[in-house]
Design a protein that fits this description.
Layout: H1 12-37, H2 58-65, H3 67-99, H4 105-117, H5 120-130, H6 141-148, H7 160-163, H8 165-190, H9 194-202, H10 207-218, H11 220-236, H12 239-244, H13 255-262, H14 267-291
Helix pairs in contact: 2-14, 3-8, 3-11, 3-13, 4-8, 8-11, 11-14, 13-14
């Protein structure tokens, strides 16, 4: 058989067609179908549309007027800031520390990445035990530690979900995904030539100066990728918050959890929320890419 057959592109469509079909069936069609659903009157999952809304843009107007949606957007903005600082920031710091370790770096890679492979439902249940509150009984792990150290008596145990709901909800989300961004940062660091650091050291640059003038500029693309993923992930985060706050609370709604909640009684409105989430994700991703736009001077 002629080896040149592998260079022919005549049959490439037969290899690409299954992927295109899968993308159309499970990505593009549901996306555009969801946009249409947002303008129709659909009450329950599985029910057919009874017609177009009157006016047709009713759901999008309700997104602006809905006080719970306003709370969800506000909390999501807070979540975005927390994920950028908490997830990406901590991941960058850990990657810088681990990249300087000569022995045992593999151990830290496994330990930091491990939370991402654990089921979000399991983590939600785990952190429910951590923040558990039982009046007069000391509650979960944190309340027991506070009682054992004499900081807060078990009779005055803190109701974390009622008093600090956003902190209780966002802590496990940040903890779970730090390892994911840590791996991306570490991969970016491995692509920076050691010659640059050696030359900088010879010129008398301190460790901080090497990080500031070499590492961070050359790591810009990796940081940009992590920030985009963190922003879009915060917009649609659902599993962990929903496990910890089933059916939500009046002050803990996120765009993802509120969208899911509305599918139980108002499918067309939840479809409109999903469209808003996509639009916000596209806009914020564009802004992040503009902020982290790579200059020619920083290219390796």
């Amino acid at each position: 058989m002629d080896a040149k057959i592998y260079q022919s592109k005549k049959f490439i469509i037969f290899f690409l067609l299954p992927a295109f079909i899968m993308m159309f069936v499970f990505l593009y069609y549901p996306f555009f179908r969801n946009i249409i659903n947002s303008f129709e009157d659909i009450k329950y999952l599985g029910a057919s549309a009874t017609g177009w809304n009157t006016p047709v843009y009713k759901n999008y107007k309700h997104v602006i007027d809905d006080p719970k949606m306003v709370i969800a957007l506000k909390n999501t903005i807070i979540m975005i800031l927390v994920t950028i600082i908490g997830q990406v920031g901590i991941a960058l710091l850990l990657a810088l520390l681990v990249s300087n370790i000569k022995k045992g770096a593999g151990f830290f890679r496994v330990v930091y990445f491990f939370p991402i492979v654990v089921s979000a439902t399991a983590l939600g249940l785990l952190f429910n035990l951590v923040f558990l509150y039982v009046s007069g009984d000391g509650g979960g792990m944190i309340n027991q530690i506070l009682d054992a150290t004499g900081i807060v008596a078990k009779e005055n145990a803190i109701d974390w979900k009622a008093e600090f709901p956003l902190f209780t909800m966002m802590t496990p989300v940040v903890w779970q995904y730090v390892g994911f961004y840590f791996i991306i940062m570490l991969t970016g660091l491995s692509g920076i030539p050691e010659d640059l650091y050696e030359a900088a050291s010879i010129d008398g640059a301190t460790r901080f100066q090497r990080v500031k003038y070499i590492t961070l500029p050359l790591l810009r693309n990796s940081i940009c990728t992590c920030v985009v993923l963190a922003v879009t992930g915060a917009l649609k985060v659902f599993d962990l918050p929903w496990t910890m706050f089933v059916n939500g609370m009046s002050n803990t709604w996120l765009t993802g959890t509120y969208m899911y909640f509305k599918t139980k009684s108002n499918v067309d409105y939840s479809a409109a929320i999903a469209v808003v989430i996509v639009i916000l994700g596209v806009i914020l991703s564009f802004v992040v890419n503009r902020v982290f736009k790579t200059n020619d001077d920083y290219e390796v």
